[in-house]
């Protein structure tokens, strides 16, 4: 992307932790014959920095538990970061109160993963879609609101005549369309989508991905698209950020990351996608066990599983460096040239 | 014509509030020794119900209303509960999407494994331990001796699925039915588990029925593919043929809808609509409301599964039956 | 209207009701009892609140089918010469009224407190839940003793007879709201995590709106489940308080006070004064509990996932 342009969203060294210690008594453990008080902290997002520009489809990929949803929720203000700054269109938004954020909520919306939990089961489609208008566009009359609802429903491919139905009367794919419609109601410019097609069947997945691309074209939307499915990412993204255990490993233009993966984790991830018709394709085996975000390893978070790891990886946290073609990689091996 | 497992005209119904519905309709296929077959289709197609029906594990409100399941020539439907038990979990093992369906959270892995062996085999406790250890090694669990004393919650999702596979192996089964074994796992772990399953099928001469919605996974592991839609088989054939040259409109659409089969940034080809629910199944070919090639006859008559160019390629579609060579 | 009726007829609720003979029987008995008690002023053979119609000469008459019984008093009379049948009908009306009233109060208090505790969380939550614990550790009896003592000190005994019904409602309502508070809080915690609530926050809806319009309606089915049982409990509590002399006065007897008033005479042979109201009370409570069990089974989300 054009680095001179002003970013729409800017994250600077964002950290998010969760205290999962539980009750007071659960904090005590016996160690070496005496009780010690210990907190259990999940480090879900660790010093993430990136910019998203107008009109982009910025994808975040990574395996489950790597902090993608936490990142999405931090960006949309559902979670407060422990550390770091988030700017939207030049304004800092992470330290605002709930009501101070209201003007930004009209510009930034979110679509969730679970088509069954993301709609209120007791609201008809009309009620679900009318609510955002009610609060953000109080000047509209009832007729204008209903017109707008019909228009957006048409756009997302749900028949406007079904406005009085309840969510349970729809299939998963149709519910996801309604969720997208809800996000579009306030006419936002930026949408964060947290695994919006992961729960859907392949044939329906294609319908919803097409809908996302169509809406982007029509409305000039910017997306932050979160997924664990690399084949989806390959299809729609302009840039891709790969995450592992809360840290960014690699950030590259969409085509680049598939044709020329640089970070050892990206390589492993790519080789593991089951591709159609390639019987027994060779894939890179990772070593060791999945690492838990409760006990982050020192140095590079990936070093326990990385086949290229050297001494320095266990000690120093790699910082992202630019590796040609706007790609940024955080890896000692790539930087010093021992990872090919 | 002696197949290891042969399913003939299987029919499973569910007794619902609104009446009886047919979840599995006229499903027939076979499995030979050491063969790997993939059962694919979208959720609700009837894959799991087929899997359960094979080991006679359909519970209320469902029941097997027709057809035969022949295992080594004997009809499972006619066997006593004792005899079925002897086949299920012994000659045929099943692996589920959620490892905790098999694992007991309050027993150590070692206890669970030895108990299973002692229930099916006439061996001493020490021998059972040795078998358990051997199987854990086979599924590449690091330091298996230590792991025997651990409980399921001490393992990661991928490790649990390995342990479930080890348990499935305990009785040296002839067939493993794996129902979406990697759907809940990450791709890197999925790749490892799939490698493991193929490796075991070869080394142990086991047959595998792999149930999944993921065409990519099936195409990497299996020899033959059976595509199901709305409770019926719509296409059957050698994996490489089906993947490279799908014949049925549904299979074609399914493969075309995969993002990887498209050019980047272009709109994906999509099948309109969704799979019908059991309660409002359309007349005739159940795919006809979504099909591009629909003809008048499709709305009246259910297409039969017919052989195309060779006896391995079967398709249920009027458009292909009429044209013959299509 | 027709639409709602059709929806009801197709609902799982109606379906499982029709198939459950216990539910049908309990519901029918409950409806009959309720109709009988609320039409007491019209169907009861005697007006038990009218002191002029009570004659002490008729005291302790046995039921009509016994030798000394009178056909005027089908189930006999009590120690003051009141017709048992009429007294029971009036008494049941009071019992049901107090039970329902107390449950309404409990529900309003408990739902509000549970909702706030669950949604706001943190220190507010800890504080409100400690209050609930403290409240639960006081038995209903203690609350009753304290409140009625204060009341009698402040207003005197005469006023007490007039205001006994609202007072009992307040006592039982205050003593047992934590059941609701805890249930609601637990389901708010479950509901709060769901994505539709997060979506509402992303849209920027006001917090009170999210709390009352989105979360509250989705936490009501457990409230419905415990409500039936709570009504039965409240009726029992009232009966217990009245039995101990802390409830309804003898001039305006509830089922509990009727049992109490006859209890002294049970060994002198006048068993009917205690037995009939006792049987009625047990029937009422058992029927409500059976219905409650059925409601719980029907609303159990595990049973009808799909
Ligand atoms: N509300 C929470 N409380 C405690 N831990 C959490 C919470 N949300 C997420 N986590 C933890 O943070 C890590 C990242 O989670 P998440 O962002 O959901 O990952 P992803 O979306 O990539 O699968 C996980 O280890 C998860 O267990
Ligand atoms: N216990 C059940 N009661 C009613 N219907 C069921 C039950 N189990 C499965 N079905 C129905 O049977 C059909 C096939 O289900 P299933 O075999 O689980 O599909 P899948 O291909 O996703 O494994 C579905 O339409 C499902 O709704
Ligand atoms: S920094 Fe070291 S351990 Fe981390 S990915 Fe690079 S080579 Fe592997
Ligand atoms: S039978 Fe007809 S409707 Fe069905 S798949 Fe073939 S052409 Fe389409
Ligand atoms: Mg997530
Ligand atoms: Mg299934």
From TrEMBL, chain A:
Question: Mind telling me which Gene3D superfamilies this protein's record contains?
Answer: P-loop containing nucleotide triphosphate hydrolases
Which UniProt keywords are given for this protein, alphabetically ordered? ATP-binding, Nucleotide-binding, Transport
| Domain ABC transporter: from-to ranges | 9-270
Q: Name one GO biological process term.
A: transmembrane transport
CDD domains, per the entry: ABC_NikE_OppD_transporters
Q: Give the SUPFAM superfamilies listed for this entry.
A: P-loop containing nucleoside triphosphate hydrolases (SSF52540)
Q: Does the keyword Oxidoreductase apply?
A: no
User: What are the recorded GO MF terms, alphabetically?
Assistant: ATP binding; ATP hydrolysis activity
> Which protein family is it in?
Belongs to the ABC transporter superfamily.
* Name recorded for this polypeptide: Peptide/nickel transport system ATP-binding protein
Organism this protein belongs to:
Desulfatibacillum alkenivorans DSM 16219
From TrEMBL, chain B:
GO BP term (any one) = peptide transport
Cite the ABC transporter domain residue spans from the record: 7-255
Matches recorded under SUPFAM superfamilies: P-loop containing nucleoside triphosphate hydrolases (SSF52540)
Query: Gene3D superfamilies given for it?
Result: P-loop containing nucleotide triphosphate hydrolases
Q: Show the InterPro entries listed in the entry.
A: AAA+_ATPase (IPR003593), ABC_Ni/Peptide_Import (IPR050388), ABC_transporter-like_ATP-bd (IPR003439), ABC_transporter-like_CS (IPR017871), Oligopep_ABC_C (IPR013563), P-loop_NTPase (IPR027417)
Q: Where in the cell is it found?
A: Cell inner membrane
**GO cellular component terms attached to this protein's record:** plasma membrane
Query: Keyword annotations for this protein?
Result: ATP-binding, Cell membrane, Membrane, Nucleotide-binding, Transport
Matching entries from Pfam families are given as:
ABC_tran, oligo_HPY
- MF term (GO), any: ATP binding
Q: Its membrane topology, per UniProt?
A: Peripheral membrane protein
Give the UniProt family note: Belongs to the ABC transporter superfamily.
Query: What protein name does the entry list?
Result: Peptide/nickel transport system ATP-binding protein
Automatic annotation (TrEMBL), chain C:
Q: Which GO terms describe its biological process?
A: transmembrane transport
Q: What is its main location?
A: membrane
Q: Which GO terms describe its cellular component?
A: plasma membrane
Compartments annotated for it: namely: Cell membrane
Q: Which residues cross the membrane?
A: 21-44, 94-122, 134-157, 270-292
Q: Which Gene3D superfamilies match?
A: MetI-like
- An example Pfam family from this entry, by short name, is OppC_N
> What are the record keywords, sorted?
Cell membrane, Membrane, Transmembrane, Transmembrane helix, Transport
Q: How does it sit in the membrane?
A: Multi-pass membrane protein
Q: Which residues form the ABC transmembrane type-1 domain?
A: 92-292
Task: Give the source's domain of life in one word.
Answer: Bacteria
Checking InterPro entries in the record gives: BP-dependent_transpt_permease, MetI-like, MetI-like_sf, OppC_N
PANTHER family membership: ABC TRANSPORTER PERMEASE PROTEIN, OLIGOPEPTIDE TRANSPORT SYSTEM PERMEASE PROTEIN APPC
**Which family does the similarity line name?**
Belongs to the binding-protein-dependent transport system permease family.
**Which protein is depicted?**
Peptide/nickel transport system permease protein
Q: Which organism is it from?
A: Desulfatibacillum alkenivorans DSM 16219
* Lineage per the UniProt record: Bacteria, Pseudomonadati, Thermodesulfobacteriota, Desulfobacteria, Desulfobacterales
């Amino acid at each position: 992307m054009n680095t001179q342009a002003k970013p729409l969203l800017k994250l600077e060294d964002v950290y998010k932790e969760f205290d999962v210690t539980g009750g007071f008594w659960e904090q005590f453990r016996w160690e070496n014959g005496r009780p010690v008080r210990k907190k259990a902290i999940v480090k879900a997002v660790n010093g993430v920095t990136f910019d998203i520009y107008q009109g982009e489809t910025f994808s975040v990929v990574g395996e489950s538990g790597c902090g993608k949803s936490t990142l999405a929720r931090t960006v949309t203000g559902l979670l407060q970061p422990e550390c770091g700054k988030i700017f939207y269109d030049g304004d800092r938004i992470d330290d605002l109160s709930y009501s101070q954020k209201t003007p930004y909520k009209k510009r930034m919306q979110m679509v969730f993963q679970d088509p069954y939990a993301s709609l209120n089961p007791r609201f008809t489609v009309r009620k679900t879609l009318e609510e955002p208008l009610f609060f953000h566009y109080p000047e509209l009359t009832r007729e204008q609101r209903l017109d707008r609802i019909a228009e957006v429903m048409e756009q997302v491919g749900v028949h406007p005549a079904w406005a009085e139905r309840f969510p349970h009367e729809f299939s998963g794919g149709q519910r996801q369309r309604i969720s997208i419609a809800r996000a579009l109601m306030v006419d936002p410019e930026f949408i964060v989508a947290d695994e919006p097609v992961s729960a859907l069947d392949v044939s329906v997945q294609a319908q919803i991905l097409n809908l996302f691309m169509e809406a982007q074209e029509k409305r000039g939307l910017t997306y932050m698209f979160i997924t664990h499915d690399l084949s989806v990412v390959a299809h729609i993204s302009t840039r891709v950020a790969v995450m592992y255990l809360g840290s960014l490993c690699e950030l590259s233009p969409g085509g680049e990351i598939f044709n020329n993966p640089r970070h050892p984790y990206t390589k492993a991830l790519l080789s593991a996608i089951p591709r159609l018709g390639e019987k027994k394709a060779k894939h890179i085996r990772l070593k060791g066990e999945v690492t838990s975000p409760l006990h982050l390893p020192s140095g590079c978070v990936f070093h326990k599983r990385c086949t290229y790891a050297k001494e320095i990886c266990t000690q120093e946290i790699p910082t992202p460096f630019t590796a040609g073609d706007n790609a940024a990689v955080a890896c000692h091996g790539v930087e010093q040239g021992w990872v090919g | 014509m002696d197949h290891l497992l042969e399913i003939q005209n299987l029919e499973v119904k569910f007794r619902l509030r609104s009446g009886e519905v047919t979840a599995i309709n006229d499903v027939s296929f076979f499995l030979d020794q050491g063969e790997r077959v993939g059962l694919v289709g979208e959720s609700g197609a009837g894959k799991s119900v087929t899997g359960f029906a094979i080991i006679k594990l359909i519970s209320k409100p469902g029941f097997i209303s027709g057809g035969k399941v022949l295992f080594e020539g004997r009809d499972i439907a006619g066997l006593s509960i004792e005899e079925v038990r002897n086949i299920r979990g012994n000659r045929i093992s099943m692996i589920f999407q959620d490892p905790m369906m098999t694992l007991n959270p309050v027993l150590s892995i070692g206890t669970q494994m030895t108990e299973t062996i002692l229930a099916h085999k006439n061996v001493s406790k020490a021998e059972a331990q040795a078998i358990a250890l051997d199987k854990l090694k086979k599924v590449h669990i690091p330091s298996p001796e230590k792991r025997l004393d651990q409980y399921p919650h001490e393992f990661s999702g991928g490790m649990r699925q390995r342990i479930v596979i080890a348990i499935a192996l305990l009785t040296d089964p002839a067939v493993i039915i794996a129902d979406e074994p990697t759907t809940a796992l990450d791709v890197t772990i999925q790749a490892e588990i799939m490698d493991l399953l193929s490796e075991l099928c070869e080394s142990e001469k086991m047959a595998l029925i792999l149930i999944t919605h993921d065409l990519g996974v099936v195409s990497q592991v299996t020899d033959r593919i059976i595509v199901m839609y709305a409770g019926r088989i719509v296409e059957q054939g050698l994996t490489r043929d089906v993947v490279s040259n799908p014949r049925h409109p549904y299979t074609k659409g399914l493969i075309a809808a995969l993002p990887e089969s498209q050019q980047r940034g272009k709109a994906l080809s999509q099948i309109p609509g969704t799979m019908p629910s059991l309660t409002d199944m359309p007349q005739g070919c159940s795919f006809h409301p979504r099909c591009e090639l629909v003809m008048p006859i499709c709305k009246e008559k259910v297409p039969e599964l017919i052989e195309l160019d060779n006896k391995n390629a079967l398709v249920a579609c009027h458009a292909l039956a009429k044209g013959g060579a299509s | 209207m027709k639409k709602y009726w059709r929806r009801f007829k197709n609902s799982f609720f109606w379906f499982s009701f029709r198939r459950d003979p216990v539910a049908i029987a309990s519901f029918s008995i409950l409806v009959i009892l309720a109709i009988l008690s609320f039409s007491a002023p019209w169907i009861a053979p005697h007006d038990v609140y009218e002191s002029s119609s009570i004659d002490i000469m008729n005291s302790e008459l046995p039921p009509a089918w016994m030798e000394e019984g009178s056909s005027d008093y089908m189930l006999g009379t009590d120690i003051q010469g009141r017709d048992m049948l009429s007294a029971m009908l009036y008494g049941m009306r009071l019992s049901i009224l107090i039970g329902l009233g107390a449950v309404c109060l409990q529900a309003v208090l408990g739902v509000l407190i549970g909702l706030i505790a669950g949604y706001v969380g943190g220190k507010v939550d800890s504080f409100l839940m400690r209050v609930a614990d403290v409240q639960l550790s006081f038995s209903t009896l203690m609350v009753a003793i304290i409140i009625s003592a204060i009341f009698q000190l402040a207003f005197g005994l005469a006023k007490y007879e007039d205001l006994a019904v609202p007072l009992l409602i307040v006592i039982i309502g205050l003593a047992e709201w934590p059941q609701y508070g805890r249930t609601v809080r637990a389901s708010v915690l479950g509901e709060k995590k769901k994505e539709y609530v997060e979506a509402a926050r992303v849209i920027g809806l006001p917090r009170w709106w999210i709390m009352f319009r989105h979360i509250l309606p989705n936490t009501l089915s457990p409230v419905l489940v415990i409500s039936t049982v709570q009504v039965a409990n409240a009726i029992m509590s009232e009966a217990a308080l009245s039995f101990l002399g802390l409830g309804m006065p003898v001039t305006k007897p509830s089922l509990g006070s009727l049992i109490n008033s006859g209890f002294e005479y049970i060994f002198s042979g006048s068993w009917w004064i205690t037995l009939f109201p006792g049987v009625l009370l047990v029937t009422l409570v058992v029927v409500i509990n059976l219905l409650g069990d059925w409601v719980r089974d029907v609303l159990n989300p595990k049973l009808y996932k799909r």
